[in-house]
Design brief:
Keywords: Glycoprotein, Membrane, Signal, Transmembrane, Transmembrane helix. The chain has helices spanning 7-33, 40-65, 239-243, 255-305, and strands spanning 73-78, 83-85, 92-97, 100-106, 109-112, 121-123, 130-132, 141-147, 152-161, 168-172, 178-182, 190-195, 198-204, 208-212, 222-227, 232-237. The strands form four sheets. The protein has a six-stranded mixed sheet with strand order 1-9-8-3-4-5, with helices on one face. Strands 13-12-15-16 form a four-stranded antiparallel sheet, with no helix packed on it. The protein is α+β, with helices and mostly antiparallel strands. Helices cover 31% and strands 25% of the residues. The protein folds into three domains: 4-161, Immunoglobulin-like; 168-243, Immunoglobulin-like, CATH 2.60.40.10; 259-346, no CATH class. The protein is elongated.
């Protein structure tokens, strides 16, 4: 992965690894000479320890002597997201953060070395790639993947940024078409105005960015983009609707707002109508209760002022005749109909108590 200008550095790496290998062979020879018998498992552990030491030395030298022409690959992520290191390790290899070994792959299985990466670092046995999840700002730094099967080490510079806020666009005033794009969190965020596919205006680390659109450009496509090195979010603008003659202002009523207002008005009117009907029914009910009381009062008054009534038994005959009214008293047992001539002076006068 190094350029031709770094052949001397590569030679230095190889020399260091040769020295480590010679020292390891001497240690093994002395162990055999002392009469220790190593099992196959113990030999495997010794090999892993030696290879881990080589990987740490390789990473340390890589960090110390990398030149701009052989700089690490840049990776960018957002807080809460994940990032995959594309260099695969299928059988045997390491992943380091700085000079610290955080995980090792042996015989196609990964073992986490640093506990803080226990639920954070994933490894795919199908692709051989490492994935760092639940990214935080302090995860930024240099990661190195060391593939022992090929002897290749690849370094990645990871930068973690906060997630970009979605921009909002409003029109300023009504005399001209001035559009204002705003974001909540402007740190490390660049605002850009696009006309079709061309950037016409931009500003970095500012919470807002305005743009004046002339009438002859109303039919062009405009959008405001909030971006940082890791991601971007866009808000398209229909200038013909926003700056056209039917625009009602910055706080233009939305259909859902109109429906909400209509619902509130209908509810208020319903309450008023129901209340009015209830009051009318209540008044009529009270009037009905009061009317019999007045009628009974008048009946009692009439009873107190009226004279004694006399009831006479009458016999009905088959043939009914009209007899002229006699003068004086007369036996009326033969009559079938009785008439009484009401006289004004005999009527009882009383006033309404209401």
């Amino acid at each position: 992965m190094f350029g031709s200008s770094d052949s001397a550095l590569v030679s230095a790496f190889n020399l260091c690894f040769c020295v480590i290998g010679i020292k390891t062979q001497r240690l093994r020879f002395r162990t055999i000479k002392l009469g220790f018998r190593w099992t196959r498992h113990e030999q495997r552990v010794q090999t892993c320890v030696r290879e881990e030491m080589e990987a740490q030395v390789r990473a340390l030298l890589l960090l110390l002597v990398l030149t701009p022409s052989t700089a690490e690959k840049n990776l960018r992520g957002t807080v809460g997201g994940s990032i995959t290191l594309p260099e695969p390790v299928l059988e045997l290899g390491f992943i380091l953060y700085g000079t610290k070994n955080i995980a090792i792959v042996v015989d196609g299985k990964m073992k986490i070395v640093e506990k803080m990466y226990q639920n954070k670092l994933l490894w795919s046995d199908r692709t051989g790639c490492f994935t760092i999840t639940d990214l935080q700002r302090n995860d930024s730094g240099i990661y190195a993947v060391d593939r022992k099967e090929s002897g290749v080490s690849t370094a990645y510079k990871l930068s973690v940024f906060d997630s970009v806020s979605a921009p909002t666009v409003n029109r300023l005033g009504s005399d001209s078409c001035v559009l204002l794009c705003e974001v909540v969190n402007a740190e490390e965020t660049t605002l850009l105005w696009y006309k079709d596919d061309e950037v016409v205006k931009q500003n970095s680390s500012a919470p807002s960015l305005s743009l004046t659109v002339h009438e002859q450009d109303y039919k062009s496509s405009y959008r405001c983009v909030a971006a940082n090195p890791a991601e971007h979010k866009a808000e398209p603008v229909n200038v013909e609707e926003t700056c056209g003659p039917n625009y009602t202002g910055r706080n233009q009523e939305k259909p859902e707002d109109r429906s909400r207002v209509i619902g509130i008005v209908v509810s208020i009117l319903s309450v008023i109508i129901i209340g009015t009907v209830g009051i009318i029914i209540q008044k009529r009910f009270h009037n009905r209760l009061a009317f019999p009381a007045k009628r009974c009062y008048r009946s009692r008054e009439l009873k107190q002022t009226s004279s004694t009534l006399m009831y006479i038994s009458m016999t009905t005959h088959g043939v009914r005749k009209h007899f002229p009214e006699p003068s004086g008293s007369h036996d009326c047992t033969q009559l079938t109909t009785v008439y009484y001539n009401l006289e004004v002076h005999r009527l009882v006068q009383h006033s309404d108590p209401g």
